[in-house]
Amino acid sequence: MPTPDPDDLKRLGERIDEAERKHSERKAAPPTSSLSIAFRFATELVAAVVVGCGLGWGIDWAFEHWASVQTRPWGMVVFVLLGAAAGILNVIRAAKEINAEMASKEK
Amino acid sequence: MAMNPMEQFEVKPLIAEPLFSIGGHPIYFTNQALFMCVVVVSAALFLTLTVSKGRLVPSRGQSMAEVSYEFVANMIRSTMGEDGLVFFPFILTLFMFVLFSNFFGLIPWTFTVTSQIAVTFALASVVILVMIVTGFMKHGLGFLMLFVPKAPWYLLILLVPIEIISFLTRPVSLSVRLFANMLAGHTLLAVFASFVILLGAAGGVLSVLSIAPLLLIVAIFALEMLVSFLQAYVFSILTCIYLNEALHLHDHH
């Protein structure tokens, strides 16, 4: 068996490193499709409004039930608006995340 | 012929007698429970049996298991960094459970576990609970700073409730997304399948036309395979993002 040339080994090592780097980069690239992005935005926006609506309704109910204070419908009015704001905040955050993801994919 | 595209999502008890009861509510062994068992057992068997030989040059099954393992590990590294790997078992379990439920649901006559909001909401609640517990363990009460963005104090009166609602939205959007995707896809498949049967039974030229929805089903099925994987991926990467926030507070601002 001939002794391996150290230069050869070094070059082989470099090639393996190169291949491994490419390999891991390819796997880390997330599969994003426009459909899933669209669906993500839609659920983020709608869910926040629904949660705000539920919270407002719950707060009105709690005030009426436990404190006998009639706040209806103001709790719901305020919290639906806050929910809509939260929904927009969610969408902006999701867009930022997706942008960062896309940028790291293109690199 | 009665064809109800929603019939496939009905939860029915498989054994007439309830197994036991909790607080007066009878607990039945349903088709839902059966397929959850099937999914858990098959995912566990897939991950253990395929790697049990531990070959240096992996067999087909072993390399599939290794790819899913590396996929999840890379996902955690890219979103949370190396210290996020403590959550690796949790996220791998979630990912494999959702992935296997979605794929099992595509086999005819099976039940899609993830098409039930009860299941997806339970999964999302576990994710949020893990996030809250991690946050308080790591940062103590400082975790509550998650709800306080950098802003002048008079804006905080408005921003803190918005941040709290935004946080409460997470389990809802996480669970609704998975559930709605699976529900919509399977309903679509059932509707087009009923078109094939209706056109085929109509006779004449219409019977020939029934090939069109049949071809569409093949295309939708391919799309559903993609959606199944994508939703499992989205569910677990959002889990990673949320847990990252609990680990490294305010890094995203």
Give the arrangement of secondary structure elements.
The complex is a heterodimer of chains A (107) and B (253).
Chain A: H1 6-28, H2 34-66, H3 74-106
Chain B: E1 20-22, E2 25-27, H1 31-49, H2 60-80, H3 88-105, H4 117-139, H5 153-202, H6 205-209, H7 211-247
Antiparallel strand pairs in B: 1-2
Helix pairs in contact in B: 1-3, 2-3, 2-7, 3-7, 4-5, 4-7, 5-7
Structure notes:
- The complex is a heterodimer of chains A (107) and B (253).
- Helix content of chain A is 83%, strand content 0%.
- Chain A is mainly alpha-helical and 107 residues long.
- Chain A has one domain (32-106).
- Chain B has 253 residues and is an all-alpha fold.
- Chain B has one domain.
- Chain B is built from 7 helices and 2 strands; from the N terminus they run E-E-H-H-H-H-H-H-H.
- In chain B, a hairpin with a 2-residue loop joins strand 1 (20-22) and strand 2.
- The longest helix of chain B has 50 residues, at 153-202.
- Chain B is globular.
- The A-B interface holds A 24, 27-28, 30-31, 33, 35-36, 39-40, 43-44, 46-48, 50-52, 55, 79, 82-83, 85-87, 89-90, 93, 97, 104 and B 67, 70-71, 74-75, 77-78, 158, 161-163, 165-166, 168-169, 172-173, 176-177, 180-181, 226-227, 229-231, 233-234, 237, 241, 252.
Summary keywords:
heterodimer, A: 107 residues, mainly alpha, 3 helices, rod-shaped, B: 2% strand
Main interface: chain pair and counts: A-B, 30 and 31 residues
The residue-averaged pLDDT of chain B reads 90
Number of structural units classed as domains of chain B? 1
Q: Level of helix content of chain A? A: over 70%
Low-confidence stretches of chain A: none
How far the N terminus sits from the C terminus of chain B, by CA atoms, comes to 58 Å
Spans where pLDDT lies below 50 across 5 or more residues of chain B: none
Kindly provide the radius of gyration of chain B, computed on alpha-carbon positions and rounded to a whole number of angstroms: 22 Å
Secondary structure class of chain A reads mainly alpha
Number of helices of chain A: 3
- Biggest β-sheet description of chain A: none
Which structural class should the secondary elements of chain B be placed in?
A: mainly alpha
Order of helices and strands of chain A: HHH
Mean pLDDT of chain A: 84
Residue share in β-strands of chain A: under 5%
Our estimate of the beta-strand percent of chain B is under 5%
Element pattern of chain B in H and E: EEHHHHHHH
- State the end-to-end CA separation of chain A: 44 Å
Strand tally of chain A is 0
The 3D shape of chain B can be described as: globular
